[in-house]
Design a protein that fits this description.
The chain is mostly helical and 157 residues long. It has seven helices and three strands. 62% of the residues lie in helices and 8% in strands.
Length: 157
Amino acid sequence: MPPTSKQIRYTPLAADFKAEEFPFYWLARLHGVYTLEMERALKTVGADIPTFRILMILKQHGVLSISEITLHAVSKLPTITKTVYRLRDDGLVATSYAAHDGRVVEVSLTDAGLALIERMQLATNDIFQRAFAGLTDNQIERLNATLREMLGNLGGL
């Protein structure tokens, strides 16, 4: 489906393009500030963003293969593999070979990983409270739906 004239205005090719009207400008700024805030908060409990991301994915989904974690984390397999083995060495996750395929490494949370999740959640709660201040449930649901649709448009679903 060809873009409408309104959509063309929001692309960098438009003659009247303004960065402040480009959604990816705001997404990039938001991501940058979010990353800085998260790094600062997680450091207080001895964690980092990759640890937070992987442990939270496992908390929600349970036992996953490294490949499945990679899909949820939207990251590269070597990066996730290296991080998972660091987390295993730190006692935060356990790894085992899948019963259905001995080549597949499955990852699960340990009690230490669950305990760190609780500390990370407490350390980062203020960030989420501030980020969503003044937004209604309906606004957040619409934002999620829009972002999900855009991700699908880019083949990320």
